[in-house]
Amino acid sequence: MKIGIVLYPTFGGSGVVGTELGKALAAKGHEIHFITYSQPVRLGSFRENIFYHEVSVSDYPLFEYQPYETVLTSKMVDVVKYEKLDVLHVHYAIPHASAAYMARQILRSQGIEIPFVTTLHGTDITLVGKDPSFEPVITFCINESNAVTAVSESLKRDTYSHFNTTREISVIPNFIVPSHEPSTGCSNLRRRYAKDDERILCHISNFRKVKRVEDVLQIFSIVRKRMPSKLILAGDGPERNNLERLARELNIWEDVIFLGKVRDTAHVLEIADVFLLPSETESFGLAALEAMAVGVPVISSNTGGIPEVNIDGETGFLSNVGAVEEMAVNALKILENDELHQTFRKNALKRSHEFALDKILPMYEAIYSALVK
Ligand code: GMT
Predict the structure, then answer these.
(1) Could you write out the three-class secondary structure of 23-62?
(2) What is the CATH number of domain 186-354?
(3) Which end of the chain is more exposed for a tag (fewer CB within 10 A), N or C?
(4) Which residues have CB under 6 Å of ligand 1?
(5) How many CB atoms lie within 10 A of CB 193?
(6) CA 20, CA 146: separation in Å to the nearest integer?
(7) DSSP readout, 338-349?
């Protein structure tokens, strides 16, 4: 099949999922056309069956806000028409689903039928999408998509509760991709960041408010009083300055390592002992799954779709949002008991196999096939 994938090309979860999905489909022989405003960060080097179409919005003095959605729509029309695509798959509803709807209408007026699949990822429903400034458009696009998928049962429920829709939503969980990159030699790398008697706690995100990274620092501050440890933070975003300040106020800054944005997070996770994800809301928690995939137990909040990934008392522990004391106690339970730590490590790894690419990929292919037929 010839598939157009529209996504945000950034480090965000939806971009990672869309890019890895495209790469995996291309490896299976499908022809994949990425349509977005810059090269997706996870795309990597040249690969067979993969094409990238850049959406570039030219600056015109009249525009205080650049009309990205319009230019994206025109690009989608062009790529569908000239590359003869069979289906479009848009990741993150805003504004990709409305652009796809418009592209479908334009192409229909030219005698070309193109179905589009919308994958809902989280904040396009739970935070941004339900805002009255987006809601009518999102409701319309959900109803007009030829197929809709959501990354968790929780997100599916949220969609029905926030939007006036009864259309079928297929839950297709996020997945992990087996790494082909050689391991960095875990113990050598580990020694660069922590002494042998120190534990490493880790958090990776886009440092937005919703991630509650300040809770990560609070949890670490409690753990650090009980055992020598380091906190590795990978990622960047609007909260970074506040977090650096808080790390100084809590007097833990010497043991907190801000790595900034990291392309291949698996190598960071490999040296971690526990992963912290105390988010306010999280439709799935891809970062937690990526940690589990390298055998790292997860201390998380119990919000949204996280309980569908992290199993309380088995692959990590779950607590109410904001319960930093409890999360610290849970982290210590694992870190202070080597035998328990190893059991949680094994459980986390085993659980991650439930989300293996070869289980998830056919679910998307089945959706495309049904539409193309
Ligand atoms: O805000 C983010 O965390 C990024 C966002 C995205 O769309 O890029 O992540 C959402 O999609 C991910 C991939 O499906 C999910 O794993 C995240 O849980 C979800 N984020 C939230 O719901 C906050």
Answers:
(1) HHHHHCCCEEEEEECCCCCCCCCCCCCEEEEECCCCCCCC
(2) 3.40.50.2000
(3) C
(4) 12-15, 17, 92, 121-123, 126, 151, 174, 206, 208, 210, 281-286
(5) 18
(6) 22
(7) HHHHHHHHHHHH
On whether the CB atoms of residues 310 and 318 are closer than 8 A, the answer is: yes
296 C-alpha to ligand 1 centroid (Å): 20
Three-state DSSP class for 299?
A: strand
Residue from 11, 118, 123 whose mutation best tests the ligand 1 pocket (most atoms within 8 A of CB):
123
Q: Which of 297, 306, 286 is nearest to 332 (CA)?
A: 297
Alpha-carbon gap, residue 277 to 285, rounded angstroms: 8
pLDDT in tens, 3-27: 999 999 998 899 999 999 999 999 9
Cα distances (angstroms) measured from residue 276 to each of 114, 211, 287: 42, 10, 10
Q: Whose CA is nearest to atom 21 of ligand 1?
A: 282
Contact 149, 170 (CB under 8 A): yes
pLDDT digits (tens, 9 = 90+) for 175-199: 998 765 555 567 788 999 999 999 9
Give the CATH architecture of domain 2-175+356-372. 3-Layer(aba) Sandwich (3.40)
Residue pair 281/258 in contact by the 8 Å Cβ criterion? no
Whether 129 has a pLDDT exceeding 80, the answer reads: no
Euclidean distance between CA atoms 203 and 234, whole angstroms = 6
Question: Measured between alpha carbons, how far is 96 from 72 in angstroms, rounded to an integer?
Answer: 8
User: Which of 177, 84, 159 minimizes the C-alpha distance to 119?
Assistant: 159
Question: What are the φ and ψ backbone dihedral angles of 183, each rounded to 5 degrees?
Answer: -65, 150
Rounded distance from Cα 1 to ligand 1 centre (Å): 27
3-state SS class at 44: coil
pTM: 0.94
Looking at residue 184, its pLDDT comes to 55
β pairing state of 199-205 and 229-235? parallel
Q: What is the pLDDT of residue 47?
A: 87
